[in-house]
Amino acid sequence: DVTGDGMTDLIAFDRDVIKVVRSSDQPPQPPPNAPSNPRFTRPANATTAVITDLEPNTRYCFTVQAENVLGLSAETRSVCDRTTPEVPTPTPTPPQQIGFKQIDVLNCSEGGTVNLWLLNASGIWTSHGSAPSQFINGSCLSTAPKKTVPLPDGQFVRFVAVQPSLCNGQNDPNISSCRKADQVVFGKATGLPFFMRID
């Protein structure tokens, strides 16, 4: 009885501290009140308990209790909600490759004839003849004759127009200084013609 009130008190001690809990004739403090206004919240940054591994599109009901050193509160009313239905991830469809069935070459170069080459997916050059210059009397009409180069279906190719007058008469698509045009295109049998004007 550390307070002299006639009631036994509780004393606890160890090597460094002594703790005393005094007895009282007063009733103990009640436990905390039950939480009010229970609800489901889904906004960002809400202060909530996060419960993982719930099944999609399933109804769940919860009650809440407060707790402190004096005990547990009564339960709140039951609050129910349904989880979001699972949305299947769509399989992406690859974009359809835009391609061309041919190249229609209009040579408007003042430098003369150009020789036409294709480099296929196997790295092999193929000659597709030549296109004479349609630059006449200072102009080149869009209605002038064009040279058509067919494209292989379903592959990327490199089209090069070589102008021999640029490199001492050589007709070699591998020499960059000889090239008057250089274009990579995708061949597609159902595609439209690709118009190329060479100036």
Overall geometric form:
rod-shaped
> Unreliable stretches, pLDDT < 50, 5 or more residues?
none
The proportion of residues in beta strands is 25-35%
Count of separate DSSP helical elements: 0
Biggest pleated-sheet summary? 4 strands, antiparallel
| Computed CA radius of gyration, to the nearest angstrom | 43 Å
Total strands: the figure is 13
Give the integer mean of the pLDDT values. Answer: 86
- Backbone structural class: mainly beta
Question: Level of helix content?
Answer: under 10%
Give the N-to-C terminal Cα separation.
Answer: 112 Å
Q: Write the element-wise H/E pattern from the N-terminal end onward.
A: EEEEEEEEEEEEE
Spatial ordering of strands, largest sheet: 9-8-11-12
Q: Would you mind describing this structure in some detail?
A:
The protein has a four-stranded antiparallel beta sheet, with no helix packed on it. A three-stranded mixed beta sheet has the order 10-7-13, with no helix packed on it. It is rod-shaped and about 125 Å long. It is mostly beta strands and 199 residues long.
